[in-house]
Amino acid sequence: MASAGNQTKELEKDKASFVQLCNPNIATLKEDVLYHFGLSTSTHDLPAMFGDVKFVCVGGSPSRMKAFIKYVSSELGLGRPGEDHPNICAGTDRYAMFKAGPVLSVSHGMGVPSIAIMLHELFKLLYHARCSGVTVIRIGTSGGIGLEPGSVVITRQSVDARFKPEFEQVVLGKRVVRRTDLDEQLVRELSECAEGLREFTTVVGNTMCTLDFYEGQGRLDGALCCYTEAEKQAYLQAAHTAGVRNIEMESSVFAAMCSACGLRAAVVCVTLLDRLEGDQIRSPHEVLAEYQQRPQRLVGHFIRKCLAGA
Amino acid sequence: MASAGNQTKELEKDKASFVQLCNPNIATLKEDVLYHFGLSTSTHDLPAMFGDVKFVCVGGSPSRMKAFIKYVSSELGLGRPGEDHPNICAGTDRYAMFKAGPVLSVSHGMGVPSIAIMLHELFKLLYHARCSGVTVIRIGTSGGIGLEPGSVVITRQSVDARFKPEFEQVVLGKRVVRRTDLDEQLVRELSECAEGLREFTTVVGNTMCTLDFYEGQGRLDGALCCYTEAEKQAYLQAAHTAGVRNIEMESSVFAAMCSACGLRAAVVCVTLLDRLEGDQIRSPHEVLAEYQQRPQRLVGHFIRKCLAGA
């Protein structure tokens, strides 16, 4: 339990850490339609619905994010036993969103553009709801490099396909490059949680974010492929030398946008295969299902520790 | 009805137009797991399931693609009345896939990476199923430039955020640029169908494909925005001058990949708003729902004509 002094300190920290947008236009909008969530400031009371959110966990698959809210809700005693968690974005099939107490769980689909749309609308939602002291964690799947399948990687730096910690996008026809910094302290806290759990191998390493799953990650089994096995291996080895331990498709814009809006953020992904050994994901369904629970267990444990210490 | 001579000609054309992959490795695989479809060559008889496919329609939203298969099935008399169309990819929630006779309807999520994963696995599926004479059409939603909302755009060329007909990706750390050609004859055929229908405004124009919905399309209402209304308008006007009539997020890689694999392809998108007038999609739900049926009606009409002439 926290002392009264600690609680006051936390409240002050919270006040200083209201979610900030990098866009002065939003404050002047009469109505803000969060189109891909099927929510709007004129039809939904966002402060009442989301004002208490402190942890947002995001991941590609809607069913996995529903499983996560059930898991944290029951493990952390956040709701009534057997309580259902309806999809808050039921008016659209672009994303799914679930809530239990201070935890929000949102799906983001696959790839940088898909997660970027979601993050724009999520940050506006948190802003309109006047949330403060929010931590955002991506819990995902990835391909590992030189790791036993099922290992979990906590991302130190998200790097691009040339191993640079940068996210490049085109704004009004011009290239804009943003940094992909993640919160170092949060990496340490999550790493300590993994050590406490001792349930599976967890490493801290760089995560390569690509715009394609097949050619973009050097796979030999896409519909298109114009390089050899040797060239693929050389590329993956170069990535490993640059500190890359896993490859996925969302971390760069996630890190860049969270950092731009002052949100504490982390990326925790399980590796479904070792890309040095192959390209296809062939493990049995039950094995993959268990792997996918690992980031959930680690982040659930982290949230429990935070709530106990609050 | 076609004459016997025409039918023979069609069969010969079909033989010459088996779906081709640009990857010699696939023919040598013992098993090919189409991971994001939840299908595999060792667990599913792909030629029996998909061998008769001639039209593949793809779109972002799973529910819209389910609505499309219901629509073409009933309009074209492809199935028994009231027949259900189960999701062929029910084992995963990454994509949804439905089939009625020679028509396959597949969702692809939002953005270039999401549709690219789907297309890699779709083309491998069509190859394993030994399909021939396949036409692929994206039916989607978009933002218009200088068009009344609800107008339908048939894409002449897919262009990037600098209005070039190119798709750039990174393969083994190196930039690769591919052309984004679409089938000119198919554009004409679809345009004729629209003239025959006379149900809504349809234009042929260039389609700009971006990697982001907010900053990437010059919106002023994202979580981040570092430009003015005047700069936005100048950019959209420059796009209009370059022949761009709508903006979406998948056409470039769709055109590049279909072209690389020799598939006849088209992009037909409805515009949900005029971006010269604003950024937010504020039309009532029923209006937007009717707009979204327009590409379905046009492409349904096109498929009917093709089947009647076959």
UniProtKB/TrEMBL annotation, chains A, B:
Binding site for substrate: 217, 219
Nucleoside phosphorylase domain location: 54-304
One Pfam family recorded for the sequence: PNP_UDP_1
Positions of phosphate binding: 94, 138-141
Keywords annotated in UniProt: Glycosyltransferase, Transferase
EC numbers, comma separated: 2.4.2.3
Listed pathway(s): Pyrimidine metabolism; UMP biosynthesis via salvage pathway; uracil from uridine (phosphorylase route): step 1/1
Enzyme class: transferase
Catalysed reactions listed for this entry: uridine + phosphate = alpha-D-ribose 1-phosphate + uracil
InterPro entries in alphabetical order: Nucleoside_phosphorylase_CS, Nucleoside_phosphorylase_d, Nucleoside_phosphorylase_sf, Uridine_phosphorylase_euk
GO annotation terms (biological process): nucleotide catabolic process; UMP salvage; uridine catabolic process
One term of GO molecular function: uridine phosphorylase activity
GO CC terms: cytosol
PANTHER family: URIDINE PHOSPHORYLASE, URIDINE PHOSPHORYLASE 1
Function: Catalyzes the reversible phosphorylytic cleavage of uridine to uracil and ribose-1-phosphate which can then be utilized as carbon and energy sources or in the rescue of pyrimidine bases for nucleotide synthesis. Shows broad substrate specificity and can also accept deoxyuridine and other analogous compounds.
Family note: Belongs to the PNP/UDP phosphorylase family.
Protein name: Uridine phosphorylase
Organism this protein belongs to: Hipposideros armiger (Great Himalayan leaf-nosed bat)
